Amino acid sequence: MATPVNRRRPRVGDGRLTRTVILGLVLITTAVALIAPLAVIFAEAFARGFGAYGAALARPDTLHAIGLTLVTALVCVPVNVAFGIAAAWAVTKFTFPGRNLLLAVVELPFSISPIVAGVAYLFVFGGQGLFGPFLQAHDIKIVFALPGIILASLFVTAPFVVRELVPLMMAQGRDEEEAAVSLGATGFDVLRLVTLPNVRFALLYGAALCNARVMGEFGAVSVVSGNIRGQTSTLPLQIELLYQDSHVLAAFAAATVLAGVALFTLVAKYLIERAERTREEGQPARRPGH
Q1: Cβ distance 176 to 198 under 8 Å?
Q2: CA pseudo-torsion sign 220, 62, 242, 145
Q3: What tens digit of pLDDT does each residue of 223-271 get?
């Protein structure tokens, strides 16, 4: 008597036609929506040669915008890295009421428009805002100045490092930290010698994403900076100003800087993931229960 054969039910994508159509749509969308705009930026920027590109990039207002963007990133990225480590440590290593609420609040910038964040800072620190009279009385300027740009950038980029660390630290558990404490390690030693080495690749990737977003932030910074040319214009705002003034070559030249940051982030992501895979393959397999 013949044994009945268990036939697997066909899944979506098993058919050659379906697989070809899906892959074709993905590749076409990627080429049209992602690769083509980046290619156009570099093609337009270098259309008149390297000399014209360098001259367009060397405009004083563009150089000021690049410097202001770098200063903002140099402040925001370390602050967000420190905040991300502290927040991820608190959420994953301690049990306290409202832990999930804290995690949701930290991720709030992902779900709120940057424009709304900028307007909120305007209502708090602006001349007619909550602290406006106090700031004016003490000659402290936050809105339409560098402090406002930094505050808005910090708000928008706050979740990036936390988002990378929390899942990994949750998966790793507390066993190694508790073992280190039982051997006499202090809290700082546990953080420096156990926790951070275990999450270093996720931390680096979170910092790279944070840096890319800080340098490319437009909405919130546009509101709190006032977009004053040569004074409070960051690089994304400068690109818009140049394009509105019909300085197309200068706008595309400035855009190559941000596009370069994005490409650098992709390369960093690839290298970090490859280093992580190499580290995991080099580790001995853990026995169950250990």
Answers
A1: yes
A2: positive
A3: 999 888 889 999 999 999 999 999 999 999 999 999 998 888 888 888 8
Spell out the residues 6+ positions from residue 99 whose beta carbon is closer than 8 angstroms to its own: 90, 91
Task: Tell whether the torsion through CA atoms of 155, 196, 207 and 270 is positive or negative.
Answer: negative
pLDDT in tens, 30-80: 999 989 999 999 999 999 999 999 999 999 999 999 999 999 999 999 999
Residue 8 is predicted with a pLDDT of 65
CA distance linking residue 24 with residue 213, whole number of Å = 30
Distance CA 247, CA 57 (A): 11
User: Residue by residue, what is the 3-state secondary structure of the chain?
Assistant: CCCCCCCCCCCCCCCHHHHHHHHHHHHHHHHHHHHHHHHHHHHHHCCCHHHHHHHHHCCHHHHHHHHHHHHHHHHHHHHHHHHHHHHHHHHHHCCCCCHHHHHHHHCHHHHCCHHHHHHHHHHHHCCCCCCHHHHHHCCCCCCCCHHHHHHHHHHHHCHHHHHHHHHHHHHHCCHHHHHHHHCCCCHHHHHHHHHHHHHHHHHHHHHHHHHHHHHHCCHHHHHHHCCCCCCCCCHHHHHHHHHHCCCHHHHHHHHHHHHHHHHHHHHHHHHHHHHHHHHHHHCCCCCCCC
- pLDDT tens digits for range 125-162: 988 888 988 998 988 999 999 999 999 999 999 999 99
How far apart are alpha carbons 49 and 62 in whole angstroms?
A: 19
Question: Taking a C-beta distance cutoff of 8 angstroms, is the pair 258, 73 a contact?
Answer: no
pTM of full prediction above 0.85: no
**Residue type (1 letter), 273:** E
Which residue type is seen at 62?
A: T
